[in-house]
Amino acid sequence: MSLFGIGAVGATGSDHETNAAASTASDGGDEPPDLTVEDVALSYGDDDPVVETDKLVVPAGEVTALVGPNGSGKSTLLKAMDAELNPDRGAVRFDGRRVDEYGTSELATRLGLLSQENTAPDSTTVRELVTYGRYPHRGFFEGLSETDEAAIDRAIGRVGIGHLADRNVGDLSGGQRQLAWLAMVFAQETDALLLDEPTTYLDLHHQLRVLDAARELNRERGVTVCVVLHDIGQAARFADNLIALEDGTPYEWGPPDEVITPDLLAEVFGVEAEVGFGSEGPTIVPRRAIDDD
Amino acid sequence: MASETGEASLGLRDALSWVDTPLVTVCVGSLAVVLAAGLVQVSFGTFTMPLSAVWGAVFDPIVWTNPQVLLRLFLGEGLGTEAAGLLGLSTAPVDLPKETLIVWQIRMPRVVVAVLVGANLAVSGAVFQAVTRNELASPYILGVSSGAGLAILLTLIVFAELAFMLPLIAAGGGAVAFALVYAIAWKGGTTPVRLVLAGVIVSTVFGSLQTALFFFADDLGVVQTAIAWTTGSLTGVDWEQVRMALPWTLVTVPVTLVGARQLNVLLLGERTARSLGMSVERVRFALSGVAVLAAGTAIAVAGIVGFVGLIVPHMVRQLVGSDYKRLVVGSAFAGPALVALADVGARLALSPAQLPVGILTGLIGGPYFLYLMRRQGALGEL
Questions:
Q1: Which of A155, A181, A228, A240 could form a disulfide with A187 if both were Cys (CB 3.0 to 4.6 A apart)?
Q2: Chain region(s) in chain A for CATH 3.40.50.300
Q3: Looking at chain A from residue 132 to 151, which residues have their Cβ under 8 Å from any Cβ of chain B?
Q4: With contact defined as beta carbons under 8 Å apart, do A202 and A159 qualify?
Q5: What CATH code is carried by the domain that includes residue B318?
Q6: What Å distances lie between residue A30 and A22, A61, B339, CA to CA?
Q7: Does the structure's ipTM exceed the value 0.90?
């Protein structure tokens, strides 16, 4: 990876490149941005709000997981963070500014999103797919610059799919494909990343590959990550912070060892479970499902 | 990775790095087909002459060494002479032998119009397939053709004095039909099947309206012209049609090529395109507009030639992959090949009687559509 970093500096050395190289090496000088949700109500059309929350913070430079049962509003909240859904009231701020005030392409250079369902034409090569991540950085008539090439190589290297770069997306397994999509979002080189259920439907190996790559990006470049996860045990091990949603309102948020309690598992997830404390955060041993009344 | 070569040559190589062997094969093969079909096409006509005379006329050095002759054919007598003057070329009148005159003046426009129609329909279909993310989309299936056809018939029968604006009028009719189809298919998003069904609905209604218009035609001649329009025919086209379609083609094909990167990103899905910073609705609207204009241009000069917009992008995709830069270029070459070839069939199938070319493309396209349906259980989302 550092090999590609050096390649980028050796090129023409525009501002952007130098920044990227510096932050690759030592996390640069810029503070990473945070995402804040302030007194927000979210709804689809004229229906009742799906999500209502007071203040929530996705802290800068950390990994935050949104957890909760199906239909608790995790993905809806994520949509508000990406300005796909305008809140009925309140505001979502990215780096202090309301997300709906950003231009679409301006936001895309700073905030990346990996959506839940991804489709690309089967004959697209992995490298072509990753190249689309540079879309917001390129002018209408501009070709790929050396900065772009370097970012693409870095992303492919970081996710560890160099050996797949020339394969067609249609020939890959589901897990490999998800890694390719992750590399595309990495190539966008944003300050913050939203990942919408990136591990759902993947085998364990690829689940860990996806999460490890995201974690590594966070550690090395200080990228703020907010990820929707299905598996609360996985979220507890992986994230610095959890936001547990129940019926569209946050039940609790904070570091995993404060958030995860037997009460939370019973009331939010409907599961009777034992919570232990390992060296890498809380461990959860589910015992039985609690019947709804 | 670092390259020692100069910036300029690197830039050029990068700019053309997407051109690959399959694409070159498609383009060269298509050119060969167009050339062969063109030679066959100009060999037939009311005035019988031996093949050697025809081919001698096609490659007549008088035509090829006097650029003002070609300019006059493509641009019209007055404009062609003016253009030749502006370019510093000779504007002297050229006397052509009889055979050359017949081949170039009367028979050649049919081949040129076939090329323009094929390019426009194929490019239009390619764009519609990306914009709707639907392998089955084409101006014909989406009702654009029927809307354009209706607008043209209305113009011919009711507002005859507006005939010079046919491509724009056809595009307008096509746009209205496309908007209707989209509105009917919309239910918090659309699916390929709903779009096709909505296309059937709109085409049926507009088709009926077209037939109804026949009753308002004053004489049988108009009805016959009208029928030729609705089936798509290249019989009797003239340089006039070339001059009508050429300027629009020079807009639609390059603009689509420039938009190829947007089309590629659109194919990743609305949410991803948006998260990459694209104004999805604006891009989709603009590119649909170009596709409607391309379809309108083709329909204005040749009527509704069906299925070209469906088959060509699909076949080209099989050969060059779904990258839209390659696909648009490949379609712009393969479309003319298909129409030129079908038009030869239309002329020779029941010789001496001539069929409308739309019947031939329909005969090729229908079964191809069936093959698509069979091959893919589920109708194709791109």
A1: A155
A2: 35-110+190-289
A3: 132-133, 135-136, 140-141, 143-144
A4: no
A5: 1.10.3470.10
A6: 10, 11, 59
A7: no
Of the candidates A72, A124, A136, A130, the one whose C-alpha atom is nearest the C-alpha of residue A264 is A72
Point out the residue among A123, A133, A141 whose CB comes nearest to the CB of B321. Answer: A123
A15/B contact by beta carbon, under 8 A? no
Confidence of residue A228 (pLDDT cuts 50, 70, 90): very high
Angle B51-58/B21-42 helices, nearest 10 degrees?
120
Average confidence score pLDDT of chain A: 86
For residue B221, what are the domain limits? 20-46+107-375
Q: Which CATH number fits domain A35-110+190-289: 3.40.50.720, 3.90.226.10, 3.40.190.10, 3.40.50.300?
A: 3.40.50.300
What's the domain count of chain B? Answer: 1
Nearest-angstrom CA–CA distance, B217 and B158:
8
- With 80 as the cut, is the pLDDT of residue B160 above it? no
- What are the counts of helices (DSSP H) followed by strands (DSSP E) for chain A? 11, 13
Q: For residue B296, which of B116, B74, B158, B33 has the smallest C-alpha distance? A: B116
| Tens-place pLDDT, residues B167-201 | 778 888 988 998 999 899 888 767 767 888 898 89
Chain B residues 322-361 with CB within 8 Å of chain A? 322-323
In a domain, B10, yes or no: no
Alpha-carbon dihedral sign for residues A131, A132, A133, A137: positive
The verdict on residue B252 lying in a domain is yes
Does B75 map to a domain? no
Model pTM above 0.90:
no
Question: How far is it, in rounded angstroms, from Cα A250 to Cα A234?
Answer: 19
